[in-house]
Amino acid sequence: MTVRIGVIGTGMIGEEHSRRITQQLTGGEIVAVSDVNVEQASTVVDRLKLDAKVYESGLELIKADNVDAVLVTSWGPTHEEYVLAAIAAGKSVFCEKPLATTAEGCRHIIDAEIEAGRRLVQVGFMRRFDSGYKLMKEAIDTNRLGEPLMVHAAHRNPEVPERYVTPMAIHDTLIHELDTFRWLLDDDYASAQVIFPRKTRHAHSKVEDPQMILLETTQGVRIDVEVFVNCQYGYDIQCDVVGEDGIARLPEPQSLIFRQAGQRYNEILQDWKKRFGEAFDVELQAFIDGAAAGEICGPSSWDGYAAAIASDACVKAQESGQIEAIEMPERPAFYG
Ligand code: NAD
Ligand code: ISE
Questions:
Q1: What is the role of the protein in this entry (predicted)?
Q2: How confident is the model over 228-259, as pLDDT tens digits?
Q3: Which listed residue, 69, 259, 292, 295, has the most CB atoms within 10 A of its CB?
Q4: Residue 135: what are its φ and ψ, rounded to 5°?
């Protein structure tokens, strides 16, 4: 069975995902696209030579009879409305992170999915599909490190546009770490604090950059994350897990070592497209296969909600300068 997919939001990642579904993966076909910028949607259809109808409204696309499954790759604040509409239409939906920009928005999605009676939503937390993070998870799960005690991490982007503002360091960027550490440590968060070091001269006026986020889990693991989105030099994701019996470091992406012009060096990637390219392939293939089988798996709405609860606390901590408590409600049996 070919899963007929509609894509809402044909910007950078919408185009990337459409390209991989069309050219690399199996079992899926893009039959419909939509973007508030209709010209952008048409350009992507032309560029990728898609046999797809362009819709002016994402909600109309979701209702279309020939759309079996939906990819939501528009801006974060628009996700909730589209995911709710896909659930109402009984269609499988892959939603890029964040599931919604607040926990309240995610809660609406959870309530609707439970009401629908089956899992329909996969959230785009692609790090769970990255080979390096999977090795770390295996090392922790098989007790190679003893009990995890601390995590030191960094999430660096070369630069961000004017529309990227201070809270986005949390709900757009740190949200990856907030999901990753819950999954790696099989734990939830108890508190969060955000510290603003001296600001880089490369950041525009509406974003504090860099930021240091300090988290504590319910098991007492301490986590520090540096978010630095105007670091200039590259896209750099770092993670060390310190355990009782050893430390595991996330592998660097494979790259050639050059000896050239009196220097020995290797290049640093510049964006998420290459850094997580293989992880995107695996997560989307899982979504297509899940939609075909009627059994969506991978990161769930509950994972999106849990990350958003921590994200809300971090945004509050940005404003208060205090340590903010994080309380997770009990997970409904529906989410295992
Ligand atoms: P982008 O700005 O390049 O593209 C977003 C597109 O959505 C634009 O073309 C815009 O016109 C369209 N859009 C905005 N509002 C819309 C609406 N209401 N209906 C339909 N279309 C609408 O942004 P992007 O970098 O592609 O990011 C899109 C989403 O993907 C964001 O949620 C972002 O956080 C996520 N993302 C995830 C990763 C990752 O590593 N997993 C990487 C990049 C982006
Ligand atoms: C972007 O939306 C992503 O998801 C990238 O992975 C992240 O590094 C970046 O900070 C976000 O803006």
A1: Involved in the oxidation of myo-inositol (MI) to 2-keto-myo-inositol (2KMI or 2-inosose).
A2: 999 999 999 999 999 999 999 999 999 999 99
A3: 69
A4: -65, -40
Ligand 2 centre to CA of 168 (Å) is 10
Q: What is the pLDDT of residues 179-203, one digit of tens each?
A: 999 999 999 999 999 999 999 999 9
User: Which atom of ligand 1 has the smallest separation from the CA of 34?
Assistant: 20
Distance from the alpha carbon of residue 259 to the mean position of ligand 2, in angstroms = 32
Q: Minimum-distance ligand to the CA of 14?
A: 1
Q: What is the per-residue pLDDT for 68? A: 98
Percentage of the chain beyond pLDDT 90 is 99
Kindly report, residue by residue over 74-123, the tens digit of the pLDDT: 999 999 999 999 999 999 999 999 999 999 999 999 999 999 999 999 99
Q: What is the pLDDT of residue 1?
A: 86
Residue 175 Cα to ligand 2 middle (Å) = 9
The interface pTM score, or ipTM, of the predicted complex is 0.98
Chosen CATH of 130-269+307-335 out of 3.30.360.10, 3.10.105.10, 3.65.10.10, 3.30.1370.10:
3.30.360.10
CATH fold group of domain 3-127+278-300: Rossmann fold (3.40.50)
pTM passes above 0.90: yes
Q: Is 92 in the pocket of ligand 1 (CB under 6 A)?
A: no
Would you say the CB of residue 157 lies under 6 angstroms from ligand 1? Answer: no
Alpha helices in 230-300 (DSSP H): 272-275, 277-293
Distance between CA atoms of 224 and 216, rounded to whole angstroms?
9
The amino acid that residue 72 corresponds to is: V
Same fold, 3-127+278-300 and 130-269+307-335: no
Ligand having the closest approach to the CA of 81:
1
Sequence letter at residue 87: I
User: Would the CB of 42 count as within 6 Å of ligand 1?
Assistant: no
Cite the beta strand spans of the chain per DSSP E.
3-8, 28-34, 53-55, 69-72, 92-96, 121-124, 148-156, 189-195, 211-217, 222-228, 236-243, 247-249, 258-260, 263-265, 324-325
